[in-house]
Write a structure and sequence with these properties.
Length: about 550
């Protein structure tokens, strides 16, 4: 019997575990599906120069709407063939549902390698350490969550203790990118502050090139507490509920470990499995749109239509090339510089982010390696920071070993596509500058005719766009009575007495920056409130 059971030992879950276990009288259990490394962290998890895309990841696939328009040129047909090879190189495996042959999701799919390891996304990501902007939190407050207004959040900005590091010494390609941006009139800016257009050094959650995850920063100092139990390799199937006094009360969870089913009892459940697996876990527990739950072969317990909806990620595409000999080398930082810009349709925030990527190990992206015919890639990744499109997460069936179905619906909103086209043209322009062009042997797939044609550019973007691995929003917080909301602004699940969500799934709107630091801040604030509630109940 535990006072609190935390489902998910990822970025947010370990923050909550560390904070709640500061109370020696509070028994805390953390259940994580991926492995735990309490003694020696594997080298790939320590290397902050590039993200981890295999070995410590969920076997997830994103399903994409089948494009009804045939490729308009042989160039675009080649693009489609190249990027569809992802399925050949990274087969979905027996536990990943294959897309239907017709209708929505037919045809294309691509890998979505979320972290499956203690530390979650913070243990495998690119290490970018951005705080959400005041304008981002203003949108949360406007959606009925005044606890997240900037006045409430600002005092917490220093609480997430991950040290942000600015790389010392630019690589030659990164320096050339920064100089090209400045020659085009972009001022130097501090990307840790404000939203001004310009080019700057990316803040990193690293120490001298070593990735700093919440497993190292939060869990490691807490491991010796006798009131904290941490279990890796434990796949949670469902939360067990009982009806009490007209509402549902969670009494524990059922999980699979070492081929056996286990039952853990707890007085409170904190859901921190991330924006993909948190809604999937609720759906397997019978909570969600009743008809959808029933279709998956599960008895509905609570009709909450918003579960799994409102999935948001940053759309990303890019222009890739092969570096000239000596321009960059494997082992260098992949990203150091970013340009943030406003499109012609931008609001208060810079909505386009251009990341200079160099010395990228192409083997981490097999389709890219195919088209480049090289082991090292460089290019500019274009990210739409404020997308309007929305997707969803749903179950294939009740089997916890089968991955949920993910529909991102990237660029479904026409305004998203137009802004991405602006970003790609801006990236092409920078790559044509002498400082960068002199370091590139050849550029793949793109030429001036593609850039000049709306039809061709739209085709290549729709074919190559991917999520940036920043999913949020699938258990959206909001006012009680809001049919689309799943939790209140404190993460408390509507209709349940003792379940709180403490991860990025409660975000109503995607922040305009990578999400890791914002997930940490959410976990800090929710954990503090849970501790306050616990102390109040004892007094």
């Amino acid at each position: 019997m535990y006072d609190t059971i935390i489902l998910g030992g990822g970025t947010a879950g370990l923050v909550v575990a560390a904070r709640l276990s500061e109370d020696p009288d509070h028994q805390v259990l953390v259940l994580e599906a991926g492995p735990d490394y309490p003694d020696e962290i594997p080298a790939d998890l320590l290397d902050a120069t590039s993200p981890v895309t295999s070995g410590h990841n969920w076997d997830l696939q994103v399903h994409v709407r089948e494009d009804e328009t045939a490729p308009v040129s042989e160039t675009m047909a080649r693009v489609a063939r190249v990027f569809q090879q992802a399925s050949r190189h990274l087969p979905p495996g027996p536990n990943v549902p294959r897309p239907p042959s017709t209708g929505e999701g037919a045809g294309r799919r691509f890998p979505y390698p979320m972290g499956k390891v203690m530390g979650g996304g913070s243990a495998i990501n690119g290490g970018l350490a951005f705080h959400a902007r005041p304008e981002d939190y203003a949108l949360w407050a406007a959606a009925g969550n005044d606890w997240w207004s900037w006045d409430h959040v600002a005092p917490w900005m220093d609480r997430p203790a991950i040290e942000t590091e600015l790389w010392g010494g630019m690589t030659r390609v990164q320096a050339a990118f920064a100089e090209t941006c400045r020659e085009r009139g972009q001022p130097a800016v501090d990307l840790r502050e404000g939203t001004a257009s310009g080019v700057g050094v990316i803040p990193m959650s690293s120490r001298q090139g070593r990735r700093v995850s919440t497993a190292e920063l939060y869990l490691a100092p807490a491991r010796r507490r006798p009131n904290l139990t941490v279990r890796g390799g434990c796949l949670v199937d469902r939360i067990v509920f009982e009806p009490r006094g007209g509402t549902l009360t969670a009494t524990g969870v059922e999980a699979l470990a070492c081929g056996q089913r286990h039952r853990f009892s707890g007085g409170r459940i904190v859901l921190a499995a991330g924006a993909i697996h948190s809604p999937a876990l609720l759906l397997r527990s019978g909570i969600g749109a009743a008809a959808e739950v029933a279709r998956a072969g599960i008895a509905p317990l609570l009709d909450l239509p918003g579960v799994g909806k409102n999935l948001i990620d940053h759309p990303a595409s890019g222009i890739w090339g092969v570096p000239r000999p000596g321009a960059c080398a494997l082992g260098e930082p992949v990203h150091q510089m970013m340009s943030q810009q406003r499109s012609s349709a931008a609001g208060a925030l810079c909505d386009l982010q251009l990341f200079m990527l160099s010395a990228l190990p192409a083997k981490k992206m097999p389709p890219l390696q195919d088209v480049l015919g090289a082991d090292v890639a460089l290019g500019i990744s274009v990210v739409l920071a404020t997308p309007g499109s929305r997707g969803r997460v749903e179950l294939a069936d009740a089997d916890p070993a089968r991955s949920p179905r993910i529909f991102l619906n990237l660029l479904q909103e026409s305004g998203d596509l137009r802004r991405m086209m602006e970003g790609m043209r801006a990236a092409w322009s920078l790559l044509q500058g002498e400082r960068l062009r002199s370091r590139i042997e050849r550029i793949a797939l793109f030429d001036q005719s593609v850039i000049d044609s709306d039809t061709l550019l739209e085709k290549v973007i729709r074919t190559t766009v991917r999520g940036a691995w920043h999913p949020v929003g699938t258990l959206r917080m909001g006012r009680e009575g809001d049919a689309a909301a799943v939790t209140d602004q404190h993460g408390r699940l509507f209709g349940c007495a003792n379940v709180t969500v403490a991860d990025g799934s409660i975000m109503p709107v995607l922040p305009s920056v990578p999400t890791n630091m914002t997930c940490i801040l959410i976990a800090e604030r929710v954990a503090a409130r849970l501790r306050g509630s616990e102390q109040e109940s004892r007094s």
